[in-house]
Design goal:
By secondary structure, this protein is an alpha/beta fold. It contains eleven helices and 14 strands. Helix 3 runs parallel beside helix 5 and helix 9 packs antiparallel against helix 10. It starts with a strand and ends in a 5-residue tail after the last helix. The chain binds adenosine-5'-triphosphate. Adenosine-5'-triphosphate binds next to strand 2 and helix 1. It comes from Actinoallomurus acaciae.
């Protein structure tokens, strides 16, 4: 097992003295070689979990093991084998792309004889070989993100932690990074990636852990999670508030879960709707049927939405 978290708790005290459990009894396992997507809305506790794994922050309870090392006691050994890609860009502006990587390669004690090759390899993975000698402040936002990933890979880690790797990026840059992460996953490196983008988790993760209010509330492949919690099909109804309430009532009586998004009620497990119930639900109005997705699962389980 690459990562093992058991009943982990991390509390913060607000300015007014109230205590918040940012991580609140979190249990999570990440097997070797798996890309696990930690999916949750803002404030779910994803970044706090990442900081606990790197021992930048200390848990108030529970146990954490990373690559066989007890955290925080053996954090130094664990850190030597893991690559961390932070959410915030903290590149050295005045150094070139290559120099940024060299600094980290030395920090991670990459042997001097192999240092140049390690840096070249990281530049190549991040498609930055052509910009190796450009200063970081002269790189585009997307290139800087790729350089941050390269920096986390320079010592060939067995495990990579990516905290919201594509937050705030435009679609083209996001697609580039997805390619990069998919490549990492294919190479057998264990990846733990936090995200609040459903699509990112679905595309990249072998396993998703859904996180809400500091806990993991469901784990599985996107397909398993959808099948277990939302079924196969979803029927979407629009209409007046009275009409929507009627749809909810009919669905509830038939034992079918529903969720409301603005002016729409979605009836889950729509494959179980009988022809007569279908008529009553539609009541002459247009109904859209679609495949169930991970967002349905998330909203079903938490009442919260993710992007
Ligand atoms: N240093 C801190 N002091 C006080 N409260 C904190 C601190 N760090 C996080 N929190 C609180 O803990 C909770 C979880 O925050 P965290 O940043 O881990 O969530 P997240 O899932 O990573 O969200 P985001 O996607 O916005 O980064 C939030 O309520 C946050 O306000």
């Amino acid at each position: 097992m690459a990562i093992l978290l058991r009943d982990v708790v991390k509390r913060y005290t607000d300015r007014d003295g109230t205590s918040i459990a940012a991580v609140d009894g979190l249990t999570l396992e990440v097997p070797d070689g798996v890309c696990l997507g930690l999916l949750g809305p803002n404030g779910a506790g994803k970044s706090t979990t990442m900081r606990l794994l790197t021992a930048q922050s200390r848990a108030d309870g529970g146990t954490i093991n990373v690559l066989g090392y007890d955290i925080p006691r053996e954090a130094k050994q664990a850190r030597a084998l893991m690559g961390v890609v932070p959410q915030t860009d903290n590149l050295d502006e005045e150094l070139t792309a290559r120099q940024n990587l060299e600094v980290f390669a030395r920090l991670y004690r990459v042997p001097r004889a192999g240092l140049r090759a390690a840096v070249d390899r990281a530049l190549e993975i991040a498609h930055l070989s052509g910009r190796a000698d450009a200063r970081a402040d002269k790189l585009s936002g997307g290139m800087r993100r790729r350089l941050l990933v390269a920096r986390g890979l320079v010592h060939s880690p067995r495990l990579v932690l990516l905290d919201e790797p594509t937050v705030g990026l435009d679609p083209q840059v996001r697609a580039d990074l997805w390619g990069l992460i998919a490549g990492l996953r294919a190479s057998g490196v264990t990846v733990l990636m936090s995200t609040h983008y459903i699509e990112e988790a679905v595309r990249l993760a072998d396993t998703c852990a859904l996180m809400s209010h500091g806990k993991v509330i469901a784990t599985g492949s996107p397909t398993e999670l959808i099948a277990d919690h939302a079924g196969d099909r979803v029927e979407e109804h629009e209409g007046s508030p009275e009409r929507l309430a009627e749809v909810e009532g009919l669905a509830r009586r038939a034992g079918l879960p529903t969720r409301r998004t603005g002016p729409t009620v979605s009836v889950l497990r729509a494959e179980r709707i009988s022809p007569s119930l279908a008529d009553s639900l539609a009541n002459g109005a247009r109904v859209v049927r679609r495949a169930a997705n991970l967002e349905d699962v998330f909203v079903m389980l938490t009442g919260e939405t993710v992007d």
